[in-house]
Each structure stands twice: as structure tokens, then as C-alpha cells.
Fold this sequence. Notes:
- This protein is mostly helical.
- The chain has four helices and two strands.
- The longest helix has 20 residues, at about 30-50.
Amino acid sequence: MRKRRVETPDGRYVVSRGRLKRNSDPTLPVSERRAWIKKLMQARLATRRAQTETKREAAWSAVQEAKRALGEKGPVWWSDGAPDESGADPIDSSYSEWWTALDDDTRRAASSSRD
């Protein structure tokens, strides 16, 4: 069963482990997004399987490159001047009103889920 993602109303973030995590750029073409997601998954696997620090660092760099290409890291993909709130607790962000309006079960699920 697929977990239900708790996404901010503007689609910029998903809440994972109780923190705002930036979503991918929705304007990326589907084929490009799929290619970068595949590279990201391969790089994450390589990070876990790396047996030397050099290989681990190379795999970690590949993870970061894919996240930047997807828009999850680096410059924000929106253009309205809103700051990047990645890593913030939703209650301590501009989304606090939205977050407190969610039901307890949804907030609890988002605080414990990994996405």
C-alpha cells in the first residue's frame, strides 16, 4: 500500500519526519523527471553499497546532483520570491496555519513517515 503524501497547499513541500521537504519542480518534462529519479535511486543504492569512503563520496555527490536537477536542492523552482523553508517544522513556518488545521491523524502520519 502506498503512503499518502501530506503536501503543502501550494505543492512546494511534502512533510516527511515532521519536516518540510522540497518537492520536485513540477515543470520538468516527464521523461527528464523519470531519468533523474532513476539516477537518484541508483545513486542512493550505490551510497548504501559503497565499501570505501571514496565510493561513498562519489555516490553521495551523484545523489546531490540528481536532487539539484529535480529541483529538490539548490535554487528554488518557484519565482514569487518566497524563501526556501526546507527542513523547517511546519508549525514554525509560513505553513503553520495550514498545519494546525490538519486533523491529528494526518499530522501524526506526516511526522512519522519517510517520503
